Amino acid sequence: MPKDGFVTSIARQSDDFAGWYNDVVRKAELADYSPVRGCMIIRPYGYAIWESMRDELDRHIKASGHSNVYFPLFVPRSLLEKEAEHVEGFDPQVAWVTHAGGEALSEWLAIRPTSEALIAESVRDWIQSYRDLPLLMNLWNNVVRWELRTRLFLRTAEFLWQEAHTFHATEDEAADEVATGLDCYRAVAQDWLAIPVVRGVKSRAETFPGAVYTWAIEAMMRDRRALQAGTSHMLGQNFARAAGIEFLDRDNVRRHPYGTSWGFSTRMVGATIMAHGDDAGLVLPPNVAPLQVVIVPIFRREEERVAVMAAVERVAASLAGVRTASGPLRLRVDERDETPGFKYNHWELRGVPFRLELGPRDAAADQAVLVRRVDRAKETLPLAALPDELPRRLADYQAALFERAVGFQEANTHRVETLYEFRATLEEQGGFLLAPWCGDAACEARVNAETGATIRVIPFDEPAEAGRCLVDGAPSERRALFARAY
RNA sequence: CGGGGUGUGGCGUAGUGGCUAACGCACGUGCUUUGGGAGCACGAGAUCGUGGGUUCGAAUCCCACCGCCCCGACCA
Known about the structure:
With 486 residues, the chain is α+β, with helices and mostly antiparallel strands. It is 34% helix and 28% strand. The protein has 14 helices and 27 strands.
């Protein structure tokens, strides 16, 4: 069926990126649709990827002093409505429980779209003195936002995430916390998922409802579109004031604490797929890959089978105690009664970083052929070398994927000066566009209306640069990062 | 919610008023196979989205409803 023998059961990435993405998610058995529109069933292989990034992020969150907690799924309507901007921002997306126990509820219950309001209300009594601060909490939970258009992992009506909620005595301390949250995300994205990110502050239009400002990391997918990969919000005193939280400070003055919140969701599974995948399917960084190495035994006759399986068992035993950057080596021997070609395609589609082919010739020579998923490069290695070589190869592979992604992002980031140039570059090349912007929301809206691109962030790593706004020519101090986004 | 599509075994499709609804993939059993998605044989699997109507006869025509997909507005 396939002319060149390689994976052909999925749409080509270059022809139809959206079709490719869907095929990969379904055929690599990451997720499925559910009986409820827009909701997602996460299958074992997809959930293992999520667990890996979740656990890594959890380590960062705990290492920076936060404790995991739990707050309920339901938020009384009156409570959600306390912070005016917040309710306005979320209202269209909230799912409500109106009946329970066969009777209409006297007050509707929101299924949490996020937990700021509930938490602010709940911690009021916990915060009496500056000595009760900072309060550093994190929730792993699910939230519901009734999206009109959904895509597996990227935008589902219900999704899994982590939401950190913190309260501080001073604005400076809260500001530091916003940076801490964003840095957790940067670390996981870059070091674990091998996805380079641009850090920056959101424009007013893109700021979280109820926040004073929002920081974010943005990543580039292989179709050159942007994906918001994590956000960290300075809530100021907004929610504390709405909920009436006050503490007595050192100087015997009652004050509202300053809050932050930050979130990272199952959307990052989608980001990992779209940042690294290719026409053959998933390409997973070794740190998140549920399987890092698959051994494919190859034989014809019975005596070959015996010899090959003996060698396979020796290799597997020699690799049993091997550790990698993300824990014990995750290895599987594919003993299914299928042809080798079938297995190659099967595991390439699933993005396993390395496969080890071991046939009669290899068994006789105490060697195996190691094939790298990302470029199918092959090398023959002595079996005895594998316990030392595999962890090194996996680390190199992780680094190479990151470098490749950095190169791709740099090659597709363009500096433009005028709206004309902006439009032409976006049409012809896509990608990230760094353009001078005066800060006026009307200019931002006009770019969006004319090109479909939005301001992703005003990047921290771009130096201040006097210029003229790409839309109205007004003086600008910095460049904003624009892109078409998910 | 506006515009455009579409609904037939698990998946992808054919069938557009007439016999027992057809084909490919996938699935089960057996034999032969196995270094890039193996072959043959036999087999199981379908209230044709739902309800109503027209007709001697409906997967096919009509009406209503429901679901899903794509494009827009909302968004982690």
